Amino acid sequence: MSVLFGPRKTSTYKGTSPEAIRHHYDFLGDFYQLTLGPERVYSLAMWEPGDTLESAQLRKLDHHARAANAVGAERVLDVGCGWGSLMRRLVETHDVKHVVGITMSPGNAAWIREQNWPHCETRVENWYDHKPDAPYDAIIAIEAIEHFAGNTVWRSKRVARYREFFRSSHAWLRAGGRMSVQTNAWNTHGWFAAMVMPTNGENGQNGRSGRRPGLKDLSDGIKNIREGLHASRKVFPECFVPTLGELTQASRGLFRVMDVRNDRADGIATLESWVERAEANRARGAELIGAEAVDDIIREERAALKFMREGRSTSLRMVFEKI
Ligand SMILES: C[S@@+](CC[C@H](N)C(=O)[O-])C[C@H]1O[C@@H](n2cnc3c(N)ncnc32)[C@H](O)[C@@H]1O
Hints:
Layout: H1 18-27, H2 29-35, H3 53-67, E1 75-79, H4 85-94, E2 98-103, H5 106-115, E3 120-124, E4 136-142, H6 155-172, E5 173-186, H7 190-196, H8 215-235, H9 244-251, E6 255-262, H10 264-280, H11 282-289, H12 291-309, E7 313-322
S-adenosylmethionine is lined by residues 15-16, 21, 25, 41-43, 79-82, 85, 102-105, 108, 126-127, 142-144, 147.
């Protein structure tokens, strides 16, 4: 079996630890699965008028299939495959011949394997250690990159860690292949300004209002940081949300950026739906993971919704083409 060797690694940091992943996806995951709908898609959906969460999720999966030029492809890699919704959709609807899905969650992988979906290969593996058997025609990574830089507050460190991922993806793709990425993102000015500066609530890219912060803004900023720390301790340990600038910089010289969508409205609609479903499943959730853990999840989802509504964060969908 031939193995494509990846590029030389310049650091040994491998993103969110296996323990933190298991906490989020395998322990808290029992509750998330109650709220995500039958496809178990765990990322922001793509909405149009009249949609349900389910139809908006399928639209999002189809968007990525087309954006990555994966329709009819021989081999596609799904980095951070969650509970496998995209893998199944690629094979059943988009005529992909073989999909490799990698996840760090043993619970994700066990569930996918139980489904026995044809042409879907699941590996419990960090992308950092991934060695493909042959090049991929397309790569899709939906809301996994939030795990790749850990929780360092230093921009240069985060960019270097994202760049490792772009280097590896570049090595795994065939010439001219595309990668479609979706991520939660801070607005243009980065995490600190996004949390503490007043916003006009209208534009996820230019969240600053332009006015000088007052006392109310200061107390709001402190509350936002408190919510961010709570999420980081209890729900999303060792995660960090990037900016558009960080990802663009990290991919430079390796990929051409073909498309950027700022889909904040999709983020708001999905989070509203998740909060509603989480509230409706409180009692069952408490039996599965305990009332305190359910409270932590709902608090985090409400904070994420507030940040999106205020234009502090957004949902980015980016298409990269291998140079
Ligand atoms: C928020 S979930 C998104 C799942 C899926 N893409 C979806 O949209 O439903 C993030 C996924 O990324 C995976 N992940 C996180 N860090 C990873 C890494 N370093 N290598 C591979 N997968 C990783 C997690 O195990 C999880 O499956």
